[in-house]
Amino acid sequence: MHHKPAEIAAQFDVPARFVDAVPYGSGHINDTYLSRWDRHGLCVRYIIQRINHQVFKEPERLMENIDRVTRHIRGKLDLTPGANPDRECLSILRTRDGTLVHVDDQGDYWRLYNFIDGARSYDVCTAPHQAYEAAKAFGRFQRLVADLPGARLHDTIPFFHHTPRRLQALEQAVRADSHGRCAEAREAIDFVFARAEFTSIVTALLDRGVLPERITHNDTKLNNVLIDEQTQRAVCVIDLDTVMNGSALYDFGDMVRTCGRTSEEDERDLAKVQVNLDAFEALARGYLEGAAGFLAPAEVELLVASGRLITLTIGIRFLTDFLAGDVYFKIHRPGHNLDRARVHFRLIAEMEKIEARMQAIVDRAAAWSSAHSPSHEHRPHSC
Ligand code: ADP
Ligand code: GN1
Ligand code: MG
What is the domain class of 128-372 according to CATH? Predict the structure, then answer.
C-alpha cells in the first residue's frame, strides 16, 4: 500500500482492530487489498480498495451509484427465502465521518467492502459450469437492477462501450504515434480498420431505439464474479464501478470475450487462442436463464455478434493503450497491452469462422430456456 494500511483502515467505521492487509486479486484497474481485523479474538476480513481516479474521474458519484445499486439488491435479497445477502451482494462500509469513501491527504480515494468468504474468481474458464454460473449471475444481476428507482445512474466512464468512439480514439493514437510503436502493431491496426463498419452495430440500433437501454454491469469478465469454492456456484457479482446505463449485449459480449476462449487474456502463443464452444453454450444457457425472459428479440438476435463486438472493443482499447504508452491498463511486462490486443483479434478471427455454429448454439439455448422458464430460482417476493 502507498500509505500505512493501518492509517487508511483507521478511517473506517469497523468495530474491530486492524491487523494487516495484503495485495489481492488480478484486476487491471483498482488496487485491491485483503485486510484482516481482530474482533474479540475472531479474525474478520474486509476488502480495502484504492479507486483508480485516473480512470474514474468522479469517485464520489461512482460510490453513490454503487450504494444505490447494492442497497436495492440487498433489499430484494432480504425478502428472498434462502438468500444470504451478506454473501450475495457487496456492501459498502462507511467511514467514521459517514461518507462512502475516504479521501486521503494525497487525494487518493479508498473504500471498504465486505469480503466474500469461501469463494474465488477465475481469470480463465476451466470448466463450462463456471461459464454457466457466471452468465446466470450476471443475467440475474441485470434483472435485479432493472427496476432501480430514482434518477439515471451517473456515467462513471462516458461512452464506455461505444465502439465507434473507441475506434476514433485508436485513429488518433495511430496518427500521433506518440511512442513510435505503430510499426510493431501494424497488423493489429489493420485488423481493426478492416472491421470499422462492424463497430456501430449496437450503437446504431440503440440510437434508433431498436435496442433498449438498460442498467448493465459493463465489466462482466469472468473474474468479476465470485464462485463458491465448495458448491462451485456463483455467489456474488463484484466490481460495480461501471454499473450504468447500457445495452444488455455489452454484458453478454464481455462474457463471451472472457469465458468463450481457451487461453489467458494475454497469451503470447496465439495458436492457443480458440473459441471454447462448450463454454459458449453454457454462457448462452446461463445468461438466458438468469435474464429470465426480459430480453427483447432484437437483443437475442445479436448475442453472437455481441461476442465479436465487445472482443473488438476491448482489443481496440488494449491496442490504443499500447500505442499511447500504457497509461490506462496495468501492465506486467513490455508489450503486454499489444499481446492482449492480439489475443482479442485472434479470438475474433476464430469466431468469424464459426459464426453459424455459434448461432445454432444460441438458437438451441433460447429454445431450451423458453422450455424451462419461468425460473423459480431465488425469485424475490417483490418481483
Ligand atoms: P478491478 O477493478 O481492479 O478489477 P475488482 O473490484 O474486480 O477490481 O477486484 C479485484 C479482484 O479482487 C477481484 O477479481 C476478486 O478476485 C477480488 N475481490 C474484489 N472484491 C472482493 C470481495 N468483496 N470479496 C472477495 N474478493 C474480492
Ligand atoms: C478492466 O477492472 P477489471 O480488471 O475488471 C476494464 C474492463 C476491461 C478489462 C479487460 C474500468 O476490467 O473494461 O474489459 O479490464 N475496466 C475498466 O480485461 O476499464
Ligand atoms: Mg475486476
Answer: alpha beta
